[in-house]
Write a structure and sequence with these properties.
single chain; alpha+beta; 13 helices; 66% helix; elongated
């Protein structure tokens, strides 16, 4: 997997940045366009580098304050036909699919964790679908609510914030969760409260359902499923496999549990509402804890690879002297 870096720097920094890029393991090509940047004035440097080496190279560029004097952008070309690129990928330590570009993960989770109108709309709609599935005993509607729910974005961002100490990201994620779920539950409760006098469902509907009993019966498997889902979700974010997130969404009962709490409170089923609230809490905690564990593991692996990569040139130089 090859990445393309576009680096914009002042002319006086161009030579230093070029040397930094050409000396990095896993770099296939480096090209410089003097004076190509108009705002800010300076040079533009393009680098083709193995994805496994991107994080280390970006750290070196940030140490040179390139992001303050200019900019660094990273793109993933769909197709690169180059023997040099193939050799660079082979020389770089690790596998591209298993490589974490931390700034990319932070940016992606940060974008998904903002408290926006679209986020609130999706969460409210998902909770309404879950409430409908609960009162109609419809598993299909509940599964649809799981797929629509946008809550994994803030949960993943919260995990990234805890691992990397990015507290502003953590506050944004906590705000999205802390405002989003109560708002969605309040909307579902209002809908349920209006539906009872209209005769859309009977007051004892929660005593009749069978397909939704698992929502308010938390147990060991509730936490196990949440941990597995959190692991799979963070792995999908790291490896850029967004299709796997759909499976994560429909494996946890965060949104259905929120919808059940709202409906149960309106109907006076406080014991069931409490059980569903516990289910919701187990899912949230399990997902975040698993995501944190995955990120810590990958950070340790990344550091080990970087140490190995820094030692490789020294070993090569020692052999050449002999």
């Amino acid at each position: 997997m090859i990445a393309e870096l576009r680096i914009c720097v002042p002319a006086e920094m161009s030579a230093v940045v070029t040397d930094c890029c050409t000396g990095e393991l896993g770099v296939a090509e480096v090209s410089r366009q003097p004076g190509a940047s108009v705002l800010p004035a300076g040079d533009v440097i393009h680098v083709l580098v193995a994805r496994e080496s991107v994080e280390r190279l970006v750290e070196k560029l940030q140490a040179l304050n390139v992001q303050e004097q200019g900019s660094i952008s990273v793109a993933m070309p769909e197709l690169v036909l180059s023997d040099r690129a193939d050799k660079a990928t082979a020389d770089a330590p690790g596998e591209g699919a298993d490589t974490v570009i931390w700034d990319e993960v932070s940016r992606q989770t940060g974008e998904d964790s903002r408290l926006t109108w679209s986020y609130l709309a999706f969460l409210i709609l998902a909770t309404q679908l879950a409430a409908i599935g609960i009162v109609t005993d419809s598993t299909i509607a509940i599964v649809g609510a799981m797929a629509v729910g946008p809550e994994f974005g803030p949960l993943a961002a919260l995990a990234v914030a805890l691992v990397r100490g990015q507290w502003q990201l953590g506050r944004s994620a906590a705000l999205a969760l802390g405002v989003g779920f109560p708002t969605a539950m309040l909307a579902a409760a209002l809908t349920a409260w209006l539906s009872v006098p209209l005769g859309l469902f009977p007051p004892d509907v929660l005593d009749r359902g069978s397909a939704v009993d698992f929502i308010y019966h938390p147990g060991p498997y509730s936490l196990i499923v949440a941990v597995l889902a959190g692991t799979a979700g963070m792995l999908s974010v790291i490896s850029r496999r967004s299709a796997a997130l759909v499976g994560v969404f429909i494996s946890v009962t965060t949104v259905p549990a929120a919808g059940f709490v709202a409906v149960a409170l309106v109907l006076g089923e406080y014991q069931k509402a409490a059980g569903s609230a516990v289910q919701l809490g187990l899912n949230l905690v399990g997902i975040v804890a698993a995501a944190v564990a995955v990120l810590i593991f990958y950070r340790l692996v990344t550091r080990h690879r970087q140490r190995g990569a820094s030692l490789r040139p020294r070993r090569t130089a020692t052999r050449s002297r002999r």
